[in-house]
Backbone:
């Protein structure tokens, strides 16, 4: 697939990517967003400022370089990137722009070592990866558009209900203006809203929090202190407001064929996709433990609905943990989801699907407990409400 000299040249840059990868990707974003301001609407400024976007891209570039002689090893990592790109509406014509800016960033950051040969090798390697992603993304775009009610690009949906779920989380029910159907999504997937706020276009992902197959999509949004989109949604979006929406995407989904026990472990607003998964799985008879950590009862969304599902399904059990309970709160436990608490919810043979979502430190802790308690790695599933980060850092 590659010219004979490309593989050794790329491999020779692996140590440099390990030490300078984030410098390269940060420089890359600076170049790209200043020379192509039209792409700003795709990239989240907070993820830029926090460095998580540059780390996720640097991690992917390093993984690619490290596996350049056995690309099949990367296959499990690709669907997450493909789904993220498709969710946001990345197009084939964006790839040459990213490629040019990435090569320039490599040249400018590694100026003393980035020879013409190395840059040519990276140009070839980038082109191959770009084509792989373009093809995989086109296939997902086409499949989504072909679903009953499916579409490609943006569609206008209107807010038909706005419901307060807790002190900080509010749900928005969205339905087509034209009365046409909506495609059935996979429980765990998310929508992308394309918002025009004060003359700036922002794209934000929101998990679908209701059962699939309803004539509406429900998203549930936490008011983020200082957050642009979430505060705008809470304060300015009312029943009747039209919103531009990209179709459901994501691979943090329930596998409905599996019958082994299901453990949903969420913290804070991470509860949203777990609600869709619980709604979709409850009637299957599969044993389900719904473990949710919240600060206190005021911040705890969907308690009534989860209690109702647990009361009407023998296979569903809920466990709530608050770390700062108020005097009238009634959690099952006070504190954090620690190893002992998790161990009590696991079957003795550890053959369980553990779905995990919450703040980064919560996820790192629960993931580490899951691994230490013997949950098979392939059965530990997670999503980040931002760029994917390392989980075993804890
Ligand atoms: C797959 C996925 C699913 C998601 N599902 C949900 C969901 O179901 N519900 C939900 O509520 N959220 C969800 N999110 C998160 C959501 O997409 C938004 O990130 C969230 O609503 C915050 O967006 P915002 O525009 O309000 O905040 P932003 O404006 O993006 O700000 C986020 C934080 O960064 C800070 N910040 C912003 N700009 C800067 C800067 N330049 N420098 C330093 N700090 C800065 C802000 O003060 C704030 O604290 C999901 C994300 C993903 C990736
Ligand atoms: C070969 C080329 C590319 C690679 C290897 C790549 C890789 C990645 C990776 C690893 C992520 C993070 C995924 C995650 O969080 O799990 C990501 C996110 C993203 N990518 Fe790409 N990408 C490429 C091309 C592009 C192009 C052409 C665009 C077009 C504008 C683009 C736009 C984005 C955006 C907007 C995000 C989300 C960023 C965020 O959440 O803040 N990418 N990409």
Residues:
């Amino acid at each position: 697939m590659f010219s004979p000299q490309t593989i050794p040249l790329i491999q020779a840059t692996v140590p440099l990517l390990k030490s300078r990868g984030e410098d390269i990707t940060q420089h890359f974003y600076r170049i790209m967003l200043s020379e192509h301001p039209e792409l700003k609407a795709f990239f989240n400024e907070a993820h830029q400022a926090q460095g998580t976007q540059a780390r996720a891209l640097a991690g992917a570039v390093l993984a690619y370089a490290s596996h350049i002689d056995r690309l099949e090893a990367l296959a499990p990592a690709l669907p997450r990137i493909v789904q993220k790109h498709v969710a946001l509406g990345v197009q084939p014509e964006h790839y040459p722009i990213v490629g040019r800016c990435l090569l320039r960033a490599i040249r400018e950051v590694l100026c003393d070592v980035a020879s013409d040969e190395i840059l040519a090798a990276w140009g070839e390697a980038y082109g191959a990866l770009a084509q792989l992603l373009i093809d995989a993304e086109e296939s997902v775009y086409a499949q989504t558009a072909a679903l009953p009610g499916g579409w490609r690009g943006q569609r206008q949906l209107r807010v038909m209900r706005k419901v307060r779920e807790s002190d900080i989380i509010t749900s928005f029910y969205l339905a087509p203006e034209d009365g046409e159907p909506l495609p059935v999504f996979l429980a765990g997937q998310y929508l992308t809203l394309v918002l025009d706020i004060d003359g700036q276009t922002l794209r934000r992902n929101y998990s679908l929090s209701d059962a699939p197959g309803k004539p509406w999509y429900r998203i549930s949004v936490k008011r983020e202190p200082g957050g642009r989109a979430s505060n705008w949604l809470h304060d300015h979006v009312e029943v009747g407001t039209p919103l531009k929406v990209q179709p459901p995407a994501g691979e943090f989904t329930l596998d409905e064929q599996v019958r082994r026990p299901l453990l949903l472990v969420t913290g804070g607003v991470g509860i949203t996709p777990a609600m869709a998964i619980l709604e979709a799985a409850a009637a299957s008879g599969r044993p389900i433990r719904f473990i949710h950590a919240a600060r206190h009862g005021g911040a705890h969304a969907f308690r009534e609905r989860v209690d109702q599902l647990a009361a009407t399904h023998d296979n569903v059990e809920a466990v709530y943990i608050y770390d700062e309970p108020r005097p009238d709160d009634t959690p099952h436990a006070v504190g954090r989801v620690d190893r002992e608490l998790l161990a009590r919810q696991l079957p003795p043979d550890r053959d369980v699907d553990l779905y995990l979502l919450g703040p980064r430190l919560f996820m790192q802790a629960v993931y580490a407990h899951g691994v230490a308690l013997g949950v098979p790695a392939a059965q530990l599933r997670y999503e980040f409400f931002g760029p994917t980060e390392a989980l075993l850092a804890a």
